[in-house]
Amino acid sequence: MFCPFLYACVVEQHRILIVEDDERIGSSLLRALNGSGYDTAWEQTGQAGLDAVAERRPDLILLDLGLPDGDGIEVCGHILDIDPSISVVMLTARDEELDVVVGLDAGAIDYVAKPFKLAELLARVRAQLRRRPLGGVDQLSAGDLVIDVAARRVWLSEQEVELRAKEFDLLARLADDAGAVVTRETLMSDVWDEHWFGSTKTLDFHIAALRRKIDAPGEISRISTLRGVGYRLELP
C-alpha cells in the first residue's frame, strides 16, 4: 500500500533514548526527534538511562558524558553490556581528544561536541540508523574468519567473536571486498553515511578496536593500512 508519508513511516520504527541532564538540551532534543517521527524517550540520570535500556531496547542512544550520578563513559560500557548492538552517540562538552578517544574506545560509535547545531545532530542520527545491505550476501569469509551477515555474527577459528554494531558493519564491508583496498571515503560512505561530514577519525578508532578482537597478539594484523588511502582485509 502506498504511504504518502514514507519517510515518517520508516523512521517511526526506530527507538531513540536521550540520556541528558540539561533540561534545555534534553527537552529540545525530545521535541525535535519526536517531530521527526522517532519513538523517543528522555532520561536525566545514568541509572534511569540504564533502566530504560533494559526496558525499551532502543536502537540508538544520545548519551551525555557529564551526568549527575556517574561518568557517561562508564554508563556507555554498562549500556553495551546489556545490548552490544545498540548505537551510542556521545554528547560532550569536553573538547580534549583524549576524552573522545576514551569514549569511542568504550564503544560509542560517534560523538557530537556541545554546543551543536540541531540540524547536524539530526543528520548524525539519520546516518547511524541507516543500514546499507551487502548485496543480499548471507555469508562472507576470509580464511578462518566467517561472517554471517543475516544473523550479524562472526566466528574466528570456530570461536564466536562479539562485535559492536559498527565494528560488525566495518568488518562486513571489508570482507565484501576481501583482498582489495577499500578507501577511507568508501568506508565512511558505506558504513556511516554517504553524506558524512567532519572528521573521519572515528574510522581509525573502530579499525583499532576491530583489530584487538580479530588479531592474535604479536602477529601481523589481518587488516592492512594503506596510509592516506584506506584499509584491506587480507586473504590467507
Protein described:
This protein is 41% helix and 23% strand. The protein is of the alpha/beta class. The chain has two domains: 6-129, Response regulator (Rossmann fold), CATH 3.40.50; 139-233, Arc Repressor Mutant, subunit A, CATH 1.10.10.10. The chain has a five-stranded parallel β-sheet, sandwiched between helices. The protein has a four-stranded antiparallel β-sheet with strand order 8-9-10-11, covered by helices on one side. The longest helix is centred in the last third of the chain and has 14 residues, at 201-214. The chain starts with 5 loop residues before the first helix and ends with a strand.
In short:
This protein is α/β, with parallel strands linked by helices and 236 residues long. The chain has two domains: 124 residues, 3-Layer(aba) Sandwich (Rossmann fold), CATH 3.40.50; 95 residues, Arc Repressor Mutant, subunit A, CATH 1.10.10.
Which keywords apply here?
Rossmann fold; four-stranded antiparallel sheet; five-stranded parallel sheet; 14 strands; alpha/beta; 2 domains; 236 residues; Arc Repressor Mutant, subunit A; 41% helix
